[in-house]
Amino acid sequence: MISSSVTRPAQPPKTSAPGTLAIVPFVSVDNMMRLVLAIGVERFLVELAGYIEEDFKRWPLFDKTPRVASHSLEGVIELMPTSDGSLYGFKYVNGHPKNTRDGRQTVTAFGVLSDVGSGYPMLLSEMTILTALRTAATSAVAAKYLAPQDACCMALIGNGAQSEFQALAFRALLGTDKLRLYDIDLAASQRCAANLAGLGFDITICGSVQEAVEGAQIITTVTADKQYATILTDNMVGSGVHINAVGGDCPGKTELHRDILLRSGIFVEYTPQTRIEGEIQQLDADHPVTELWQVIADQAPGRTSAQQITLFDSVGFATEDFSALRYIRDQLAATGLYSELDLIADPDEPRDLFGMLLRMQGNIAAH
Question: Pick from 320, 243, 245: which is nearest to 45 by CA?
Answer without folding.
Answer: 320
